[in-house]
Amino acid sequence: MSSNSTYPHMLAPLDLGFTTLKNRVLMGSMHVGLEEEKNGFEKLAAFYAARARGGAGLIVTGGISPSISGWLGPFAGRMSSSRHAKKHRVVTDAVHAEDGKICMQILHAGRYGYHPLAVSASAIKSPISPFKPRALSSRGVKSTIKDFVNCAKYARKAGYDGVEIMGSEGYLINQFFCERTNHRDDEWGGPVENRARFAIEIVRQTREELGTDFIIIFRLSMLDLVEGGSHWEDVVYLARQIEAAGATLINTGIGWHEARVPTITTPVPRAAFTWVTQKLREEVKVPLITTNRINMPDVAESVLSEGHADMVSMARPFLADPDFVAKAMRNKADLINTCIACNQACLDHAFEQKRASCLVNPQACYETELHFPSTTNGKVIAVIGAGPAGLAAATYAAQRGHTVHLFEQDANIGGQFNYAKQIPGKEEFNETLRYYARQIEVTGVNLHVNTRADSDTLKAYNIDEVIVATGVLPRELEIDGIAHPKVMSYLDVLRDHKPVGKKVAIIGAGGIGFDVAEFLVEDEHLTLQPDKWLAHWGIDKSYQSPGALTTPEDAEPARDIYLLQRKTSKPGKGLGKTSGWIHRLTLRKYQVSMVPGVTYVKVDDDGLHIRVNDKPKVLDVDNVVVCAGQLPNNALAESLKVAGFSVHVIGGADVAAELDAKRAIRQGAEIAATL
User: How far is the C-alpha of 274 from the C-alpha of 254, rounded, in Å?
Assistant: First the structure.
């Protein structure tokens, strides 16, 4: 047990027999897209070194394939030769120089491979890849096992302290174990003993080849969350066999990529799935790692102190703050830049083959490119607007040593985040505002709230540079009756909390339209009620059925809502790649009518008159809420330029295409780095 009084369980060392981890925090695997870039391994080395320096007890890399057929996509990262191993040396050396430990994840995509060479247990196409896999022959299975062992051997050559064998999330090993995807009738299919053999042989032969002083983590799918998923008895059987085969640690895998249940996004309650790791802990002696939506030290501490696991895995929280553990050790959790599980800059980027980063920490994966060195030329800088862009610009500039005055016309900092944090499932946005409030204090930003800045205000402070971050204005619609008392803007609803009737039409199905719909239709804030949330999504804690799925509880809508858009495409099509489907499914659960291809005719006492496919229709609604996009609020910037100030425009005041906090915060950071 650690002597740290606040987080004694989280900061306690973990003795693995041949080596000791300095605490119970694993930085979980993430594919960040750096390996494929020019000088990618140097960038990767800086990325992982920062997390080792920040105190992670053990780091696991993004998935590396053991063979070409195991690629996630063409020319993805592979480890099958000395040449590959040599490239990774720079990464392992950088981590070891910071007194860290690092394991390489071996990931064979199986039928999730986005290429025509994909293989699987059986020739069954996945719903998320266009390529049907080839079924491995019995000989092919044996040579694939050898590929895993070979991959681990080269990982050790590359300086890794161990490997994580990816056996969950619906990848190849999971495909062999699960009856959903294994229809074989040879020694690798049929009864559980045969379906488990592939995983067991990989671990057993890897341990045999690598000896006793090498970490082998097996990532076990404890909850498949798909139809035809594993039974609990099968999960226990595999865990016991993996332990006997020589695994050092077993990590928790939650859900397949094709599962229709959210597992990692913002609406998922914190630590929503640790109960399943606790359930398995009664069945095995090997240390277990639990995972998913553990994003603050107090959450990790309670999970460990209540005996749910021996270790916690956090992936995205280390994107948000590399110094997560170091801050916890100093009892400074209030300084942690918390992961809000938005996926916008990490997973969404990964799925679009772009470099991952982090909405709240634009330096993530840009450690070699985005720096905030102390300035030798201190300036007096005015930042106007304390939304995400202004907060980032002000705090990074002050951190560098500039004198910063931050002007905000409202009583509180946060801008549009003050609306976002009210949406059910977006409660985490409160953490970003808490973080920036503390950053304003520790960096010495001079905050002026309830202050509308203009050129006279700025002259009084002898300002050298002005950063205008005044955000956006709602776009006004031009239709008959737009001034009718039934009509409201999204600001009336989210900012002013004006009463809204029981029947509502929302004009505009972009991000704000979806947010307003969720705000008006769900009263319960299920994210803050884990057991209710699990029941809502049909997850069975008693694990009576395969994959732990049960019939979802009916959702009671607080209002009848129509979500309308002019475009003929599917509503919500432009939402995030990894989270958009959840928002669409949530609104469907609450019986929201989502209607594309709408022409707006007029609003009157009868309601909203529209045409859909040239058919007129009157929606008998109490209110019409306009969420029809935004315009840059940049008039002030123009007048300051005329007054002779050096002006930089960032965030929504620069570009108002949807509310883009990711771009806003990055712009704020980049301008602060250059002034």
Answer: 10
Q: How far is CA 263 from the centre of its chain?
A: 10
**Strand 249-254 to strand 472-474: parallel, antiparallel, or no bridges (unpaired)?**
unpaired
pLDDT of residue 658: 60
Average pLDDT (452-477) is 94
**75's tokens:** 């020319």
- Same structural domain, 173 and 204: yes
Do 115 and 228 sit in the same domain of this protein?
yes
Q: What share of the chain is helix, strand, coil (3-state, %, to 5)?
A: 35, 20, 50
Same domain, 486 and 468: no
Residue entry with tokens 């039928």? 111
Rounded Cα distance between 632 and 206, Å, is: 58
Domain count, the chain: 3
DSSP assignments along 405-442, one per residue: EEE-SSSSS-TTHHHHTTSTT-TTHHHHHHHHHHHHHH
Question: Token pair of 638, please?
Answer: 């123009």
Residue with tokens 């129509």: 562
Q: Domain limits at 603?
A: 476-522+557-628
Would you say 136 and 189 are in contact if contact means Cβ atoms under 8 Å apart?
A: no
Say which residue the tokens 């005719």 belong to.
Answer: 601
Rounded Cα distance between 625 and 487, Å, is 6
pLDDT tens column, 612-640: 988 999 999 999 999 998 899 999 999 99
* Per-residue confidence (pLDDT) for residue 2, from 0 to 100: 47
Residue 175 sits in a domain of what CATH number?
A: 3.20.20.70
Residues 6+ apart with CB under 8 A from 289: 26, 217, 249, 250, 251, 252, 277, 309, 310, 311, 312, 313
CA distance 530 to 538: 12
Compute the distance between CA of residue 595 and CA of residue 580 in angstroms, rounded to an integer: 16
Residues 484 and 466 in one domain: no
Report the chain's mean pLDDT, rounded to a whole number: 96
Q: Taking residues 533-546, what's their average pLDDT?
A: 96
Using DSSP, state whether 131 is helix, strand or coil: coil
pLDDT in tens, 9-64: 999 999 999 999 999 999 999 999 998 888 899 999 999 999 999 999 999 999 99
Predicted confidence at residue 353, as pLDDT, reads 86
How many other β-carbons are positioned within 10 Å of the β-carbon of residue 450?
10
Q: Which residues are catalytic?
A: 171
| 3-class DSSP state of 580 | helix
Alpha-carbon gap, residue 230 to 192, rounded angstroms? 10
Q: Is 39 left (phi over 0), alpha (psi -120 to 50) or beta?
A: left
134-135 and 162-167: which strand pairing? unpaired
Clarify whether residues 298 and 428 are in a common domain.
Answer: no
